[in-house]
Design brief:
By secondary structure, this protein is α+β, with helices and mostly antiparallel strands. It is built from two helices and seven strands; from the N terminus they run H-E-E-E-E-E-H-E-E. A hairpin with a 5-residue loop joins strand 3 and strand 4.
């Protein structure tokens, strides 16, 4: 009988841990979405949601090739937090990288642009660095990138 009680208590403990860890992720996604929507409103942006939590703005359509997940791209960008703190940016020549080697928000967002296109990606923390701090980027941060897709290979 004691073994049964022990197993029952252990099961309840495990279920509580699972429930509350899932609730935290849902709460973070909800919080990120609220932050992004407020940023969009405050800055009078015409942003489109993708369904994953990512929002994007295309200010210049571009006319060249459109990248896919296997593409190598050259992007000129400025990355910052919603409070305006810049955490990374390129020079005028941009930076080149394979789309498979970047955060999920870029893997999903960059293929929305064509070569020559310019715009903005508003990335929830789950598609960025999640609950891990990265350099000067705090954990659970919404990331904003002004981008120009310079080349696609």
């Amino acid at each position: 009988m004691k073994l049964f009680r022990y197993c029952s208590l252990l099961t309840i403990l495990i279920l509580n841990v699972l429930f509350f860890s899932c609730k935290k992720k849902v709460d973070q996604a909800t919080s990120d979405d609220r932050i992004i929507k407020q940023y969009i409103s405050d800055n009078n942006l015409n942003a489109t949601a993708t369904g994953s939590g990512l929002y994007y703005v295309i200010s210049t359509q571009g006319t060249g090739a459109q990248p896919n997940s296997g593409s190598t791209v050259t992007v000129k960008y400025k990355g910052y937090l919603t409070n305006g703190t810049v955490f990374d940016q390129t020079g005028n020549s941009g930076a080149s990288f394979g789309l498979g080697n970047v955060i999920k928000g870029w893997q999903e967002g960059i293929p929305l642009f064509k070569k020559g296109g310019k715009g903005m990606l508003l990335i929830p923390s789950a598609l960025g660095y999640g609950d891990q701090a990265q350099g000067s980027i705090p954990a659970n941060s919404v990331l904003i990138f002004d981008i120009e897709l310079m080349d696609v290979k």
